[in-house]
Amino acid sequence: MAVSRALRRLLRIRDIEEEQCRLALESAIGELHRLEHALAVTFDRKRRGRSLVQSSAQTGELMDRLAGLEETRSASLHASALGPKIDAMGEEVRVRRQAFLLKRVERRQAETLIEETEAREAIEAGRHGQQALDDWYSSRLYRDECKEETESKSTLSTAQVIASNENTISQQLTGNKKCS
User: Fold this and answer.
1) Which residue has the higher pLDDT, 142 or 80?
2) Fold topology of 5-166
3) Which end of the chain, N or C, is surrounded by fewer C-beta atoms within 10 Å?
4) What is the sign of the dihedral through the CA atoms of 162, 163, 165 and 166?
5) What is the chain's Cα-based Rg?
C-alpha cells in the first residue's frame, strides 16, 4: 500500500493551513504590540502633562498649566479607549494561537500517518526482498543437488562401464588361460 496522492495532498493542505494560521497569529501579535506601545506612549504623554502642570505651578504660567491639564485628560481618555482594544486583541491572539496549535497538530498527525505508512512499506519491501533471496538460494541449492546427482550418475555410469570392461577383460584373460 503506497502512500496515496490524496494523503500527500492532505499534508500539503495542512501545511498551508498551518502557515495561514501562523501568519494570522503573527499579525494579531503585531497588532497587540502596536496597541501596547500606543498605551505606553499615552502613559508617557500623561506623565509629561503632569510634569508640565508641576513646572507651570513653579513658574506661574497659566497657559502651560492648562496645556498640562488638557494633555493629562486627553492621555487618560486615550488610555481608557485603548484598554478594551488591548483586551479584545489579547483574546484574539489567544484564539488565533489556539487555532494555530490545532492546525500544527493536524499537520503532524498527517506527517505521522505518512511516515508510518512509509515505514510499513519499507518493512514489507525488506520482507519481499528477503523472500526473493531465500527463494533464489533454495532454487540454487536444488539446481546444485540435481547437477551433483547428474554428475554422480554419469560418474557412476562411467565407473560401471569401466568396471564391466575390466570384468570382460579379466574374464577373457581367465578364459584364455583355461584354453591354454
Assistant:
1) 80
2) Helix Hairpins (1.10.287)
3) C
4) positive
5) 49
Residue with cell 519491501: 125
Check pLDDT > 80 for residue 81: yes
The total of other beta-carbon atoms located within 10 Å of residue 45's CB is 16
Cell of 13: 493542505
Q: Which residues have C-beta within 8 Å of that of residue 35, sequence separation ≥ 6?
A: 82, 85, 86, 89
User: Running DSSP on this structure, what letter comes out for residue 4?
Assistant: P
pTM of the model: 0.63
Distance CA 174, CA 139 (A): 51
Angstrom CA distances, 68 to 41, 43, 81, 166, stand at 16, 13, 20, 139
Instruction: Name the residue with cell 507651570.
Output: 56
- As given in the structure block, the three cell numbers for residue 90 are 489579547
